[in-house]
Write a structure and sequence with these properties.
Order of helices and strands of chain B: HHHHHHHHHHHH
Largest interface: A-B, 102 and 108 residues
Low-confidence stretches of chain B: none
Number of helices of chain A: 11
Number of strands of chain B: 0
Strand content of chain B: under 5%
Oligomer: heterodimer
Order of helices and strands of chain A: HHHHHHHHHHH
Shape of chain A: flat
Radius of gyration of chain A: 23 Å
Number of strands of chain A: 0
Radius of gyration of chain B: 21 Å
Strand content of chain A: under 5%
Mean pLDDT of chain B: 88
Shape of chain B: globular
Structural class of chain B: mainly alpha
Helix content of chain B: over 70%
Number of domains of chain B: 2
Distance between the termini of chain A: 76 Å
Distance between the termini of chain B: 58 Å
Structural class of chain A: mainly alpha
Chain lengths: ~260, ~240
């Protein structure tokens, strides 16, 4: 019990250090540059305390639940008994691990579809486009984008192909799409990549990637374990640009065919 | 229902909803595909509860401290005040938000463990802590710098894709020269760090700026800050990997 309290206290102190820069920035600029006193000092202070406590409890929960869950799924889905193979005397083809890709795609699809930040972006896009790019279609296309991204990302870990090849190919696609996409959508589409990787998705997906790299023969967590999040943040950009493009074409065709 | 009107209860519920899709997918796979006993179920359940509780406290705290202050300041700075102060604020906001981002704290620790197991750094607590902190500070510096560049872009009215293409180019050119062990975490770090604290504060700054500057449309010109915050850490972390 004492050991645990000391551990908690250490975590609290460390988290204090972590939120100090943003607290100093906000409060310092408010008092010294804008020169206005804090509107609700007590409320703000309690808020900072909640943030502090929240981070400590959240990180504790991550170590107990989300990280183990990610590695558990990785090890169970790659276990030779589950796959019905004997990796010692036969080479394993990438196709054997198809449940891994299905799982990664499902996680990507479900979390992106439920992501509140993405909902907000989708509604803004619908407003900007004057209704030609509907919010629901956009959300589904981003969810499919994240699903494809994570499936491809796990495929890359399984096969050990070069991460930078995939990502740079993605950049080339985004660059080409940018020239054709509706101009007003570009900023929002670019930002949608950072938006879909939330606080709960990142730890689970990271643990999944590291777990896969550990479990699959010939892979090394140090070299192959990371990179899934990069896929999950690149593919929504391609999906939003692509969907905006297609939705615009469709609505243009509709207006030109029935004048 | 008076219980549902309590903001804490409502937040608790919405935190649970954040986690629900993951739990649903995992449970479906456990029941229908894997069909094996799960070790340490009790610990997983307690941990899930802690994640929901922590997320609730965190978001509740942000909404009554950092967000209202940060947003009103972002608007205030965007409307008046010198360019120099605005850029200084942009940098500090990006740096501070990224260093406090819980997902980055957790993944940096993970990366340090992997690096130690892989023999990249010493297998000791001190070496791991300094590697994780070095990574986070690198990411935070690069996000501060990214927001500074992004704000400057909005003020000048440059199109968003030129600096983004320049970033793509930098990543592509630097990758062959960066050590292989750093590339994965470098590519991930930007997207990990743009999460619960960074995105709302930075978006408020961008939209505030675009509202304040005449002839800009907040709907279209205010966006495009997050993408720099995703790209810049890739470049900085690869450089960090080359130096150490």
């Amino acid at each position: 019990m004492i050991e645990w309290s000391i551990h908690l206290l250490m975590e609290l102190l460390q988290t204090c250090r972590d939120i100090l820069p943003i607290a100093i920035t906000i409060i310092g600029f408010q008092l010294l540059v804008i020169r206005r006193p804090l509107a609700h000092p007590k409320r703000t202070l309690i808020g900072f305390f909640y943030v502090l406590l929240g981070i400590v409890v959240f990180l504790e929960g991550l170590d107990m639940a989300l990280f183990p869950l990610g590695s558990l799924m990785a090890s169970q889905l790659t276990a030779p008994e589950f796959l019905g193979i004997n990796p010692v005397n036969q080479p394993v083809s990438w196709f054997t691990y198809s449940w891994v890709y299905v799982f990664a795609a499902s996680i990507g699809f479900a979390t992106a579809l439920a992501e509140p930040a993405l909902l907000a972006v989708a509604i803004k896009v619908e407003q900007i486009s004057g209704g030609t790019i509907p919010a629901w279609g956009l959300r589904i296309s981003v969810a499919i984008g994240v699903a494809l991204g994570l499936a491809l990302g796990t495929f890359r870990i399984v096969t050990g192909l070069d991460l930078s090849f995939f990502i740079i190919a993605g950049y080339v696609i985004v660059t080409i799409q940018t020239y054709f996409a509706p101009k007003m959508i570009i900023g929002l589409a670019y930002d949608s990549g950072g938006v879909t990787t939330s606080m709960v998705t990142v730890p689970l997906v990271t643990a999944l990637g590291l777990g896969l790299a550990e479990a699959i023969p010939g892979r090394n967590p140090l070299l192959d374990g990371f990179g899934l999040i990069a896929f999950a943040s690149l593919f929504p950009i391609i999906a939003v640009l692509g969907y905006a493009q297609i939705a615009q074409w469709l609505s243009r065709n509709k207006t030109s065919s029935n004048p | 229902m008076p219980l549902l009107n309590n903001p804490f209860i409502r937040q608790l519920f919405s935190s649970f909803l954040d986690l629900a899709p993951i739990l649903a997918v995992v449970i479906i796979f456990q029941v229908f595909v894997i069909q094996q006993p799960i070790p340490d179920v009790a610990e997983l359940i307690i941990g899930t509860f802690l994640v929901v509780l922590g997320l609730t406290l965190f978001v509740q705290g942000l909404e009554q401290s950092l967000f209202p202050l940060g947003e009103s300041m972002a608007y205030a700075f965007a409307r008046k005040g010198s360019l120099l102060w605005l850029l200084a604020f942009a940098f500090c906001l990006g740096f501070g938000a990224a260093i406090a981002e819980p997902a980055l704290i957790a993944v940096a620790d993970k990366a340090a463990n992997i690096a130690a197991t892989g023999g990249l750094i010493e297998q000791s607590g001190v070496a791991k802590d300094s590697y994780a902190l070095g990574l986070r500070v690198t990411v935070a510096l690069s996000i501060g710098f990214a927001i500074l560049v992004g704000v400057f872009r909005i003020i000048r009215g440059w199109p968003v894709h030129y600096p983004v293409f320049a970033g793509f180019g930098c990543v592509a050119v630097m990758t062959p020269f960066a050590p292989d062990e750093i590339i994965g975490i470098a590519y991930d770090s930007g997207a990990i760090a743009t999460s619960t604290i960074t995105v709302p504060l930075v978006t408020a700054l961008g939209v505030g700026l675009a509202t304040a500057i005449k002839g800009r449309n907040p709907m279209t010109d205010g966006f495009g800050l997050i993408v720099f915050a995703v790209l810049m850490p890739m470049i900085f972390v690869m450089a960090y990997g080359m130096i150490i």
